[in-house]
Design a protein that fits this description.
The chain is an all-alpha fold. The chain has 8 helices and no strands. The radius of gyration is 43 Å and the shape is elongated. 2% of the residues are buried. It holds the Pfam family NpwBP.
Length: 225
Amino acid sequence: MIRGNWNLSDEFKKNEKRQVTKIQQRQKIQNKKEKLQHVDPVKLYFKIERLENNHQKTEKDEEYLKSLKEDLEFIKNNKLASSTKLHDFLQKQQKKEELKLKQESKLWKSESVYFNPELNPLGKVPSIDKLNNQSNISSVPNLTISKLKKGKLKRYDPDPLIQQLNIKCPSGEPPRFYKLIQNTSKPKRKAQEEDPESEEEEPPISDDDSDEDDEPTHKKIKLPN
């Protein structure tokens, strides 16, 4: 049934417009395929990661980041020649992330920095939320001492004031601080600390004083018959 306001010319124009739109979309996809055909997806991934870690992004950076993410998704979804390389790389990255989370939540016992009196002098304990990766609270990282020795420790340049004042340090190795484990036992309380107003001891009485204070004694003398 033909509508009263139906027009063959308008319908033909609509169909023609839809066909042109489809052709343009196919051409756009084809151009993008040719553009991304030789793009290294691994470099693209790290470029996205660097931009995401940048906390001072401008609006232009945000738009560029969005464009890069769209390109990466396009490579994955359209199965370009480099999509296989990207798939293998993403699997390796996922395994690395899982291993990293496992290492961060592992209890290292005596190897942990938490048990080291120099690295953790205040005796802080790891947070449960931190071990479960559910907290963003900044605390002592859950690392082992061996990992810190491999270059995780922060190195500081010598103070230039030492050279200016010509201060000569003593020979030998520099001192080590917090060598003894801190805060492991309760301080012993003194006996008189609880009751400071305890009874004072009476001073000893000398023999001279006792002779003066004693009452005179009377001896009974028996007379002869």
